[in-house]
Amino acid sequence: MINNEIYLNSPIEIERELLEYFNKNSKLVIFDIGSCDGLDSIKYSRFFPNSIVYSFEPLTKNFEEINRNIAVYKEKNIKPINKALSDVKGLAEFHVSSGKPEDLKVEGWDFGNKSSSLLEPDKTLEIHPWLKFEEKIEVETITISNFCNENSINEIDFIHMDVQGAELKVLSGTLDMISKIKMIWLEVENVELYKSQPIKKDIEFFMKNKGFTKIKDTVSNIAGDQLWVNFNFFPKKRLTHFIWKKYESIFLKKKKTHIKISPEEYLKKSYSQCGEDLIIDYVFKVKGLKNYTFLDIGAHHPYYINNTFLSYSKGNRGVSIEPNPEFYNFFLNERPFDVNLNIGISDQNGVLEYFLFDNPTLNTFSTEEKDILISKGYKLLNTMYINVLNINDIIKEHFNSKSPNVIFIDVEGFDYQIISSLNFDKYYPDVICIETISYETNGSGIKNKQIIDFIENKGYILYADTNVNSIFVKRDFWIR
């Protein structure tokens, strides 16, 4: 079962923006629309403890889960609503999703119920072939306008919306209330995952026409999220925002001045432990390769200390390997367009004992590494047996026997065993990023010269080293 505690303690994606526009102690009115299990409602409730969170979820099974989570975590400022928000008040057909990925090993968690929609599914079935829509039910619908009138709500501070293609239905149901909403964070698609759904250009046209300004956009070539602000409520921030936008356009047009632009314009965000993702992204940028594939072995978490989330957020896709069942489940939710595998990698196929520590970044298949960690005071929490496959079999099956552009390996003591089993005669990645230092908290780790020598002898140059990880670039890829 997924560890709710880990998710609830992870940062809200737009945490910085929320703090920029709202005071944590303010009494906000928050709508969590399409709240599923209610975990996001709980995160907002905790982040803004004096607020009231209205949690809308039409599917009865999910609604019951919301109530269970509210009881378990003793949240008192969440009000669950067992109705669907739409553009009309009445009854509507609701397409209920179900199913689970074929490679799912963990029981006790419903992966299929998070894609239900007022709209009939379309390309979502191609992207997630394991997803099923075998049931249609009738649900009660209300509009934001109706609900606010009935509950004497004059303003909405923040809306989080995840309604699987029905965004414009919900927004259209705001009527005059749209001008009384301060901020909206909503899922946006670039393709029709559901039939006749609005796509990015439709959402943007509506929001701009209603006086909102987009301040954050994570939409890839398939889907992502956008954050919109009604600056009528934040006049001082409107001035700052548009001043920078004005100078930015002048700067780009004339290309001859050193006008100081907001520091954020120069910000480079990294999700890796030591900036490895930015280094590798630069390598491919220099070589003119905008789109590239990746194989991430020991992926850890979908975005926390993760080497591939930066690439994923730009629309690139690959395979993430994570043997920890709890963390693997996060990948299914947060990285739906990748291939995510709950297995280990070794030099041969089979089953290996997997050691789980109180610091999950140290989990390992290596008995030797396990003993070293215990001797250093780390607590062994559990062991389990996990299926392991050879790296060459993974590439053959999931990359159509073509080498991924970049391979990441971070497996706590198994790194050499894996890289030395790669068939370089068949699979020759442009870049390899691999951990090459023993773990020490005081910086006294020892570099693994065996790994470095092995990869260099395969025709690679050591392009960069962050001390923790070494980044190798294929010589004839870089120098030509």
Offer a concise description of the structure.
The protein has 480 residues and is α/β, with parallel strands linked by helices. It has helices spanning 4-9, 15-21, 39-47, 60-72, 124-127, 144-150, 167-172, 200-209, 235-254, 276-286, 309-313, 325-334, 367-375, 391-398, 415-419, 449-456, 475-478, and strands spanning 29-33, 52-56, 78-81, 84-85, 90-98, 132-142, 156-161, 181-189, 213-217, 223-229, 294-297, 318-321, 339-341, 344-346, 350-357, 380-390, 406-409, 431-435, 460-465, 469-474.
Structure report:
The chain is of the alpha/beta class. The protein folds into three domains: 4-233, Rossmann fold (3-Layer(aba) Sandwich); 236-266; 276-478, 3-Layer(aba) Sandwich (Rossmann fold). It is built from 17 helices and 20 strands. It has helices at residues 4-9, 15-21, 39-47, 60-72, 124-127, 144-150, 167-172, 200-209, 235-254, 276-286, 309-313, 325-334, 367-375, 391-398, 415-419, 449-456, 475-478, and strands spanning 29-33, 52-56, 78-81, 84-85, 90-98, 132-142, 156-161, 181-189, 213-217, 223-229, 294-297, 318-321, 339-341, 344-346, 350-357, 380-390, 406-409, 431-435, 460-465, 469-474. Strand 7, helix 7 (167-172) and strand 8 (181-189) form a beta-alpha-beta unit.
